[in-house]
Structure formats: structure tokens, C-alpha cells
# Entry
Amino acid sequence: MTLREHCQLICHVAPVPPCGVVSVVLSSFVLFGVRTCLTVTQRDVFSVGASVLHSGHLHRLLTFPLHHRTSAQLLLSAAALLLLGGSLEKGFGTVRFLFLFLLLSSTTGLLYSLLDLLLEEQGHTEGLLPVALACVALTTMHTKMTRSFLCGVSFPTLALPWVLLLLTSALVPHSVLPCNIIAVLVGWMHGRGWFSLVELSEARACILEKMAPFRLLRSISGVMFVPASTEERRRTLLPQINPAPGSYPVQAYAPLSSISTADTTGKSYEGWPSSAGAVSGPTPAPNPHGHGPAHSFGLSHGHSCSHGHGHSHGQL
# Structure
């Protein structure tokens, strides 16, 4: 198998990523590349912490998820968002997912900045990991599954964000545990309806996705744009299959000639013709004299003759 055939096989087998998650990950790579090329050494230029409230740089509440200190942190955080945030985008749509991304990240950054200000620790945090954990918490609040499985271990679905919190906080470098805990709580609060006043409705999302930036995302090949409408989203995620007749075993009907042949063979038994009514009709009642049907034993002629002779002798 050639390299091109291998690539085509991988493209057919691998799931198509949603374009909202891909756009966020690409933005993180672009920001990391620009910061590396410009040699920006100031660590908290895009991070969040108590300095956000001291200096009034509120734009960091929107930029801190895209900022990463090292390439390892960027790769692991991007992988976490691709694996954990795709289900949320498929459930809400691309436009609403991008709005939720901004809402969850800004709320998490603001609450962590307030906590950092109260504790006076002067700690900063950044990365996509807090938003990914918030997406998992929000997804578990909307799912109907009661049990989840991870590495063969079963546990309640509501405990999944906390399990992933412990794993990702230990694996992803420069991750801040208090910020991750706040992110899970923010996703839980959104799932409970605490942000219903600022939530983007489905009708408004349908209007926004017809505008220029989202029309461009819809036209990109290789990624999946998830519509905001429930019906269109269902058709996108679950496309209707129209198979050709005979492509499935349940559609492989027998030809008419074989059916007619089977009918003709079913109407005869051992060379004797039989009607459909005789075959499918009710079972005849037994003979009151204890004899079976005469034609089944080939004695109909003899029996009738003997009966006839006895009758004639009686008359004599």
C-alpha cells in the first residue's frame, strides 16, 4: 500500500474535528509563534492573576487561554481541548461553542484573579487546560449517562471532571490547581443554569452563523462546521444513508422466477396435485368408524366396492 493510500485510509477512519476547537488551537499556535519570534520575555503579559485587577488589563481574561509558556504545555493543552471540547461543540454548535469558550474562560480568569488577590500569592496562570475542564464539566451536566468509563474503571459521570482534573494537573506543566478547580466549578454552574441571562440562544446563533466570519469557517474543508439549529445539527452529525437496492442482506430479495417455482412445487405432494386450501386449511376430522382417510392408503376403490356389494346383498 502506497503512502497516498495510507493517508486516504487515515482520513476515512479518523474522525473529522470540529472547526471551533481547531480554530482555538490554531490561534494558540499562532500566538505562541509570534511571542517566540518577538522574544517577549515578560511572563504575565497574557496571563491572569491579581495583576489583572491591579493594572486594569482586563483583556487578559480573553487572551490567557491562548497563551502558553512552553511548547510542551501548548501541545498537551491543545490535545486536552481537542479530546475534551469536541463533544461540547457537537452538542451546542460551532457559534455557541465559541461564545461558550469566551464566557467560560473570562469567568474562570476573573474568579481566579479575585482569589489570587485575596490570597496575595501573586500567581499567574494560562493555557487551554482550564477551559477544557470547564467544557467537560458542562458536558457532564447535559448528558443522560449515569456511569463513565476511563481506562476500564467505572465511576459516576459527575465525577469525570474531577478525575480528569487530577490527571491533567499532574501531566500538563505549569498548570495551576486552584484555577483548574475554579474552571470545573464554572462549568458546573453553567450547566445548572446560573449563566442563563448571558447565554447565547439558538435563534441568535443561527443568525450569527450566516455572517462573514462564520461563513468562512463553513467553507473550510477538512473540518466540520456544526450548525446551531438542532435539525441541521442532527443532519450534519447523523447523515441519512440511502443504500442502493440489494446492498444489504435484508434487501436481497429472491427473483420472481424462483418464487413461482417454489409455489408450483409446494402445490404437489408425491406426484399428486394438491390445492393451497388443502395444504393450509384446517385438519380434517377423524372418521367416526375408526378408519383413516381412504385415499391416504390407496383403498378408496376397494372400500367403495366392498361397501357397494354389501349394500346390494342386503337389498337382496
